[in-house]
Structure formats: structure tokens, C-alpha cells
From TrEMBL:
Pfam families linked: GLTP
Annotated Glycolipid transfer protein domain residues: 43-179
Organism lineage: Eukaryota, Viridiplantae, Streptophyta, Embryophyta, Bryophyta
GO cellular component: cytosol
Protein name, as recorded: Glycolipid transfer protein domain-containing protein
Keywords: Transport
Family stated for the protein in its record: Belongs to the GLTP family.
GO molecular function, one term: ceramide 1-phosphate binding
Any one of the GO BP annotations: ceramide transport
SUPFAM superfamilies attached to this UniProt entry: Glycolipid transfer protein, GLTP
Length: 215
């Protein structure tokens, strides 16, 4: 198999990073349930975990090209913000204080968009684990419809729908990541298990501060 050094052991790195993020929450949580509002998650570790996911969008081909460019730019913004703010909650509080939460380019707006990207990958991986065969069309379509479609215009949804016809196969996708199905399964399962509570935690930051997430 041809090696791609940029993606070598990427799934392992993603699984490890997100297990660590879940661990940050469990330090103050009760069992497997993260605290709803405790500002425990550091922005530096969260933005790093999100940056590791960036290459996955490119590996999915043209269907998710729109997501790759947008996601990468917004993750970069969060990485820069991590130099100034220790936790996600503190960063959001500053935008609330400045009355810039919903402004284009605000850290809080960018965080919400990044979170959707993470959740899309989580749902995609969930469906990959339970879908038989070599096609990614069903897992990718379900993930897009669940996470992105409610926030996209009809035009974007049509473009994505057309792009779904050009998705790589599961084997091709994993090959780009220097993985085979057997070696990838454990890493994918670990990410899905860890990312769920983290996504819930970040969503709760918005809900507990009465910002909502449907914007």
C-alpha cells in the first residue's frame, strides 16, 4: 500500500486526542456524564483535537469540499484564540460581554461551526461501523442530513447531493488514511465513544448561556 506520511496513524492520533478531551470532562464529572456547565475543557486541547480531524474532509472528496475549507479556517481561529483564552467557556463569555456572539468571524460563531464538523464526522463514523458493504454513500448522506442539511440552503444541499455520487469507497477512504478496515475499527469506535460527551458538553455551554445552537 502506498504510504501517505501526512495521514500516517491519523485515526490513532484522533482517537487518542478525543479520549483525552473526554478525560478532561470526567475529572469533574460523575461517572460517564460530563458536567453541564463547568468550564473544564481547555481551548488549546479542544482546538488541537479539532485540527486533527481536518484532513478527513479532504479524504471524502468533492462532496465535503465546502466543509473542509470552512472547517480548517475556523479551527485555525480557535487555535489562535487558545493563545488568549484558557477554556471554551471563558472565550464564549468574552464574546457575550462584547456583544459579538453572532457576528461573522466571532470565536463563538466559529466554535459552533467547528462543533458541527466534529459531529458530522462522529455521525459518519457511527454509520460506517454499522453499515455493511464498501459504499460510503449511505453513511455520508445520513451524517450530512442529520448535522449539516438543516443549516444549508437548497442550493448547497443540491451540490452536496451531487457530490455524494463521487465519494470514495470505504476501502479507498481508509487507504488514504493508511488504514485497513480491521485496523481502523478500534480507532473509529474510540473516537465515536469519546466525541459524543464532548459534543454534548460544548452544546451545553451554548444552552446554559441561553445562546441556542440553531443559528
Amino acid at each position: 500500500m502506498e504510504s501517505d506520511e501526512g495521514h500516517d496513524r491519523l485515526l490513532f492520533a484522533i482517537a487518542k486526542a478525543w479520549k483525552g478531551l473526554q478525560g478532561e470532562l470526567l475529572v469533574q464529572g460523575d461517572g460517564d456524564a460530563p458536567p453541564a456547565a463547568a468550564p473544564a475543557l481547555t481551548l488549546r486541547s479542544f482546538s488541537h483535537g479539532c485540527s486533527l480531524i481536518s484532513p478527513l474532509f479532504g479524504c471524502l472528496g468533492i462532496a465535503f469540499k465546502f466543509a473542509e475549507k470552512d472547517y480548517v479556517a475556523k479551527v485555525h481561529d480557535l487555535c489562535e484564540a487558545a493563545k488568549e483564552y484558557d477554556t471554551l467557556s471563558v472565550m464564549v463569555d468574552q464574546d457575550i460581554k462584547n456583544q459579538t456572539v453572532r457576528n461573522g468571524g466571532s470565536h463563538t460563531r466559529n466554535l459552533l461551526r467547528v462543533l458541527r464538523g466534529v459531529d458530522m464526522v462522529r455521525v459518519l463514523f457511527e454509520h460506517i461501523l454499522v453499515t455493511e458493504g464498501n459504499s460510503l454513500k449511505e453513511p455520508a448522506s445520513k451524517a450530512y442530513e442529520q448535522v449539516f442539511a438543516p443549516h444549508h440552503s437548497w442550493t448547497i444541499r443540491k451540490v452536496v447531493s451531487a457530490g455524494m455520487l463521487m465519494l470514495p469507497t470505504k476501502i479507498q477512504f481508509l487507504k488514504k488514511l493508511n488504514e485497513e478496515e480491521d485496523s481502523a475499527k478500534g480507532h473509529i469506535e474510540e473516537f465515536v465513544k469519546s466525541a459524543g460527551p464532548v459534543v454534548q458538553y460544548v452544546n451545553n455551554i451554548y444552552l446554559n448561556k441561553e445562546l441556542g445552537t440553531d443559528w
